[in-house]
Amino acid sequence: MKAVGYTQSLPIDDPQALFDFEADKPEPKGRDIRVAVKAISVNPVDFKVRKRAQPPAGDTKILGYDAAGVVDAVGPEVTMFKPGDAVFYAGSILRQGTNAEFHLVDERIVGRKPASLDFTQSAALPLTAITAWELLFDRLGVAPGKSLDARTLLIIGGAGGVGSILIQLARRLTGLTVVATASRPETVTWCEDLGAHAVIDHSKPMKPQIEALKLPPVALIASLTGTEQHYKALADLIAPQSKFGLIDDPAEFSMIAFKNKAVSVHWESMFTRSSFQTPDMIAQHHLLN
Prior knowledge:
This protein has helices at residues 44-52, 119-123, 126-139, 161-173, 185-194, 206-213, 227-237, 272-276, 283-288, and strands at 2-6, 19-22, 32-40, 61-62, 67-74, 86-89, 102-106, 110-112, 152-156, 177-181, 198-200, 218-223, 243-246, 264-267. It folds into two domains: 2-113, Medium-chain alcohol dehydrogenases, catalytic domain (Quinone Oxidoreductase, Chain A, domain 1); 129-271, Rossmann fold, CATH 3.40.50. The strands form three sheets. Strands 11-10-9-12-13-14 form a six-stranded parallel β-sheet, sandwiched between helices. By secondary structure, it is an alpha/beta fold. 28% of the residues lie in helices and 23% in strands. Helix 3 crosses helix 4.
């Protein structure tokens, strides 16, 4: 089968940073399904893995996580899918990726492709949507429901992939007040159009902007980008006994900044369930469905 891979972590403008090659068509075992890939998307994790994960000598690493396609074959323990089913998913960070004609994935992290979306649209959703959902409901512990919730959720980086989904989930499925951050006119408008009650500029001091809004206390923060730059300011503005969630990889981050306010800190990684085969791994199947 045709695939795109790399053997060395090289600058992207190097001719060998990524290259086309022929790979063996993988055979499904256990709970794996084999998907004939119709569409993929690219996320920051692709760049991060290529930059810091050197394949073993002689191996070619295939990147790619989000995908949509059609089930081509199934392993002997598969019970939820059959050949011909249209599916979408975000894959596993520990396995070969979706930048190939065919791809193996555990059925427990796969959903049926939405009938209202084509393959390209479907492939754009899983990684960001799962991350946003797990961060809001699993890590920050928000209960779905439209009853009034006297708290404010502050989303740092509201116009990105995860932020765009998170704004919509919080507005449509909770009673929280939703404030997003953005620093350009077009991204401010984007966040407002998605439903944010208010948008502040993270390139300027945030606490005065929050105070001027006179909203319920900021009891939940979703830091999606720039955590290293912003966490001290966020520790200053968050309400006592609140929750702080993050998804990025800050080189500098100290939870001591949150100690005096008894703020709990929560990391979200949507690959955790598949990487560690957690007992609730099938939750991502249910979510995508």
